[in-house]
Amino acid sequence: MYQPFEQMPEHSRIWIYPCNRKFSEEEKNKINQLLTEFCENWQTHGSAMVASFNIVHDRFIIVAADQEVLAASGCAIDKQVALILQIEKELDVVLLDKMNVTYKTGDFFAHKSLVDFKRLVKEKAVNAETIVYNNLVNNIAEWHDNWEIPMKDSWHSRFL
């Protein structure tokens, strides 16, 4: 059962999929269509889940489920990943590679491999104050507080 993202409770579990590039308006429309339909029909063990999604900064897909109403089973999560794989294929983007880092440089976003990001830290092209995206947050409350943060406050700080 789809619910607008702004109405999802803070405890809702989230999955964040960073894109290797910015989505076009046409691509965002396609993603909105696919994810709305998915959330309207997403089930676990035959029961409808309360779910939503958000596209942030034109490059992050966030899927949310109110797990206090009904927890997502492994099969339900697999269906979500299958849809993300479909989006990757249809739009020719990378969303599932967890070995990448997205960070902000001025008003622009950069998406680099972990190896390249470590090199940038050594070269001092990024520093403790660089805004990074901690896609390991688990729920909407953590997303609000700990997603878009200075590198020094993130797991990325181990590279400093």
What layout of secondary structure does this protein have?
Blueprint: E1 13-18, H1 25-41, E2 43-44, E3 47-48, E4 51-56, E5 60-65, H2 74-91, E6 100-105, E7 108-113, H3 114-122, E8 131-133, H4 140-146, E9 148-150
Antiparallel strand pairs: 1-5, 2-3, 4-5, 6-7, 6-8, 8-9
Mean pLDDT: 95
Please estimate the helix content.
Answer: 25-40%
N-to-C order of helices and strands: EHEEEEHEEHEHE
Number of strands: 9
Distance between the termini: 43 Å
Strand order across the largest sheet: 7-6-8-9
Q: Specify the structural class.
A: alpha+beta
Instruction: List the total number of helices.
Output: 4
Assembly classification: single chain
Outline the structure in words:
This protein has helices at 25-41, 74-91, 114-122, 140-146, and strands at 13-18, 43-44, 47-48, 51-56, 60-65, 100-105, 108-113, 131-133, 148-150. The chain is α+β, with helices and mostly antiparallel strands. The chain has a four-stranded antiparallel beta sheet. A three-stranded antiparallel beta sheet has the order 1-5-4, covered by helices on one side. Strand 4 and strand 5 form a beta hairpin. The chain is globular, with a radius of gyration of 16 Å. The mean pLDDT is 95.
